């Protein structure tokens, strides 16, 4: 997945959860993601292996 994830992509954890937007690519390889939960902006860093692209 590392070659496919880019800043601006919409992704989701393989286990489910909210749709998130990739804000930055970090060494690891990991993606810094942002999403809204209860009208609050949330952020998190996830390994590429835990993410899937959504359309």
Automatic annotation (TrEMBL):
This is DUF2158 domain-containing protein. InterPro entries: DUF2158. Pfam families: DUF2158.
